[in-house]
What does this fold into?
Amino acid sequence: MPKAIDLMKRREEEILSSLLFLSEKTKGFTEPELIMIGGYALRAYIPFSRFTRDCDFALMKRNGWNIDRIKEVLPEGYLVEEEQKRNNYGFLRCIKFVKHNRTRVKVSMDLMEGEIRGREAKELALSTAEAGRFLHTVPSTL
It folds into this structure.
């Protein structure tokens, strides 16, 4: 049986590959504009490595649903596990199972459009418009 750390490392490898693919397909995360949030985003600013279970993105809500565009450019092997579209809130969870020896590892990307919500339906963190304004005012030397 593989060690948990080996499974997490395999998931990290697949996430990196997926991020590079999405970056290429979205012109550097600009079409549509993707903002990485959550554990993977924190890793750019904290001095220690931290494993997380999924890769989270926020998308600006504009004309139509940008999560539909993302579904068109998903890396090979990803499936839509969950999709919601309600008023100013959209959610898309994409998953992929990758092999590690004789075990399968679940890789997950969550994309939130419009409002950024917590794991509970009542938890509204902020809108992506607010997140975008914040990120454009944060000094690049963080």
Q: What stands out?
A: The domain at 4-135 is CATH 3.30.460 (Beta Polymerase; domain 2). The mean pLDDT is 82. The chain has four helices and six strands. The longest helix spans residues 4-25.
